Amino acid sequence: MSGPNTSYDPVEVSALDPAAIDEAVSAALTAIAAAGSLGELKAVRTEHAGDKSALALANREIGALPPTAKAEAGKRVGQARGRVGQALKERQAELEDERDQRILIDEAVDMSLVPRRAPMGHRHPIELMGTRIADIMVGMGWEIAEGPEIEAEWFNFDALNFDIDHPARQMQDTFYVDPPSAGLVLRTHTSPVQARAMLERGAPLYVGCIGRVFRTDELDATHMPAFHQVEGLAVDEGITMANLKGTLDRLASELFGEGITTRLRPSYFPFTEPSAEMDLRCFVCRGTDPDCRACSGTGWIEWGGCGMVNQNVLRACGIDTDRFSGFAFGMGVDRALMFRTGVADMREMIEGDVRFDAQFGLEI
Ligand code: DAH
């Protein structure tokens, strides 16, 4: 059995050489300082403090040293490992701190940001105006009827007493639906709904119709090829022009303000006799300002047509003219909207810019 190797010289164990240990420490510290992320630091830890690192190797060598040399070498290696371990710990803390700061920035939620909401849609002001007019009529006890936008020529013209050669029937005024022989037009007014209502419901009858009508007009500030009308028809016993005037005045003041009345001027429509143009008391100056821009100083604004329903129309629609008489009126909804809101150019109403509609909200 051999005794302890007394001739063992620790200096010869290169892993325990102080210079080698210093070198291992400084290599480890440099690598630790250079580690830019926790992942990199993990690799550095394995390389410089792991089982196969120079310092771990040196540590293992200590066991083979003679007892006299163990304390010295143990101290040296222990201090070296302690420095590296401390540096690792500090860098780990720094990198974790950096990571946490980054997360706070990257994942920050700005509670002051206005949430992005889908903008609210709006009902179109023309539609709102129509609804408002319908409400007023219903409030007077009238019914609301509808008719087709593609209308039989007979309802649009013949039933309403238009002569066969009446200029309104010309292609340059009316959109005919192909083929023209089918006798279909895009209705040029809401008056055909009068004929439909009389045929369907008979007298007595109080009916309004609000809808879209079409004419071959060029689009400009005051004309649209598609626009809207409101039609009224009352058929009952003893109906006179006084009832017509009273109804129009009521509509006018409900729509444009108390005290706004109407004025009738003689006119001609095939479906009424007598017929009248209807003017509206200027709702801006009420007839008091000779320089008023809304009415050009006349005190009145043209709004539509009206009259006593022509007996030919009543007869064509099966109404007993010995017993019943009626009045009718028709005016522009778009024009009413212009009056009420000061919109000067009709094109704005149909461009479909939601910002225009939004100004009117749900009430006009
Ligand atoms: N339909 C006519 C037009 O579009 C307006 C009108 C005038 C309607 C007189 C009526 C009325 O009911 O009696 O110009």
From TrEMBL:
Mg(2+) binds at E273. Its cofactor is Mg(2+). It is found in: Cytoplasm. Binds 2 magnesium ions per tetramer. It catalyses: tRNA(Phe) + L-phenylalanine + ATP = L-phenylalanyl-tRNA(Phe) + AMP + diphosphate + H(+). Its main location: cytoplasm. It comes from the Bacteria. Residues 135-338 form the Aminoacyl-transfer RNA synthetases class-II family profile domain. Keywords: Aminoacyl-tRNA synthetase, ATP-binding, Cytoplasm, Ligase, Magnesium, Metal-binding, Nucleotide-binding, Protein biosynthesis. Its EC number is 6.1.1.20. NCBIfam families: pheS. Belongs to the class-II aminoacyl-tRNA synthetase family. Phe-tRNA synthetase alpha subunit type 1 subfamily. This is Phenylalanine--tRNA ligase alpha subunit. The lineage of its organism: Bacteria, Bacillati, Actinomycetota, Actinomycetes, Micrococcales.
